[in-house]
Design a protein that fits this description.
The protein folds into two domains: 166 residues, no CATH class; 198 residues, no CATH class. The strands form two sheets. It has a six-stranded mixed β-barrel. A two-stranded antiparallel sheet has the order 2-11. It has eleven helices and 13 strands. It is 51% helix and 22% strand. It starts with a helix and ends with a helix. By secondary structure, the chain is an alpha+beta fold.
Length: 377
């Protein structure tokens, strides 16, 4: 019973940690990436005009449509430089409120009083030693043009624009070290994109899946319309596979623990031969004897599993509220391991235990019933 309880508790705890890690990934990805993203199937960019935007905005459930230009650029601040990914956003990007809780320095803004401002990642700030408050140096953004190699004038090989650093965001190291957000007009001027956009980012006001389906029907096969989870499908697929294999591995522990039930029942059958004979004398049937031993196995497994479920759930609750186990890293996104209890995990574990218990207990119970029949003969 103790072995079953410990294996069950371990299974609940580990699955809850995977649930917590999944929620953490979703919260990070939701802060950086949109609810729905529209991209061209072929090519890097696509033409966007007012009519195209109006058609998308007219789709039921669409709240905000943000135009995006994304590309690589070299950024220099004073004497240091770094290659980053720049994302030019239209002004309504701030209306999506994805960065509201992630600004660690400066004021969240892309344009104020006619002045353009950049929102830089914390890693970029550290790499370039960017000052935000009382800053006297501009952020220099260089973009390499697609020109012929025979061009002798070096100034025609690249475009340069200066912008003020306005704020610093911190979401996750990969984002912080590689991204700078800029006003859309600034990016158009620097990259010479004209009416081209690399993507459109959608904020919805109703069910995301329904809005995605309507947008896909409107745009056709030329465009991909991806939800936030689909934009990171490889990561979530990997997480689900890890959770599945962990579940199977720990289920083996429950099987090993349940083998104790098998041997306990077999010993019980041997030990209770006289009792079986007494039951025979008072008129009990072989089915009754079999059910007695099946019930014995069920009691051992169910009580053990019940204790394990309660114990595992209590450990996860304490971890969630008091942080019993820390991540053990100074630069970790969260101080403690994230956990989330999922009722479906409790149901699936219970079903597994019921199945394993029935299979394990069936043979000893059958042996007892056959022994009973032999006594009758």
């Amino acid at each position: 019973m103790i072995a079953v309880a410990m294996a069950t508790a371990a299974l609940i705890i580990v699955l809850s940690v995977f649930n917590g890690l999944g929620d953490l990934l979703r919260s990070l990805n939701t802060a950086f990436d949109p609810e729905i993203k529209i991209e061209a199937i072929k090519g890097k960019s696509f033409e966007v005009d007012s009519l195209f935007l109006q058609q998308i905005k007219a789709v039921e459930g669409v709240e905000t449509v943000t135009e995006v230009i994304e590309d690589y650029a070299l950024v220099r601040y004073r004497d240091a430089d770094i290659v980053v990914t720049i994302k030019g956003y239209s002004d309504n990007f701030l209306d999506q409120h994805r960065l509201d809780g992630h600004i660690v320095d400066g004021k969240l803004r892309l344009r104020e009083n006619g002045i353009n401002y950049a929102i830089v990642g914390r890693g970029v700030q550290y790499a370039l030693s960017i000052g935000v408050e009382n800053n006297i140096y501009p952020l220099q953004v260089y973009y390499i043009k697609n020109v012929k190699a025979s061009t002798l004038d070096i100034s025609k090989l690249y475009a340069r624009r200066d912008i003020e650093p306005g704020s610093v965001f911190s979401i996750e190291k990969n984002y912080d070290d590689n991204y700078i957000f800029l006003p859309l007009d600034f990016a158009i001027d620097l990259l010479d994109y004209g009416n081209k956009r690399t993507s459109l980012e959608i904020k919805t006001k109703s069910a995301t899946a329904s809005v995605q389906q309507k947008l896909q029907q409107l745009l056709g096969e030329r465009f991909s319309v991806l939800t936030n989870e689909q934009q990171h499908k490889d990561i979530y697929k990997l997480l689900k596979m890890e959770k599945l294999f962990t579940f199977l591995a720990l289920t083996l522990l429950i099987v090993v623990a349940s083998i104790n039930i098998f041997f306990s029942l077999m010993m019980l059958v041997i030990d209770k031969k006289k009792d079986i004979a007494i039951l025979s004398a008072v008129g009990a049937s072989p089915k009754l004897v079999r059910n007695i031993f099946l019930t014995e196995g069920a009691l051992i497994a169910f009580i053990g599993a019940g204790i394990g479920l309660v114990f595992g759930g209590a450990i996860c609750w304490l971890q969630d509220h008091f942080g019993l186990v820390g991540m053990g890293m100074e630069n970790a996104l969260v101080a403690n391991y994230p956990v989330r209890l999922n009722p479906l995990d409790f149901v699936s574990i219970s079903v597994v235990i019921i199945t394993i218990t029935f299979i394990i207990s069936f043979y000893p119970a059958s042996v007892a019933a056959k022994s009973f029949t032999a006594k009758e003969l």
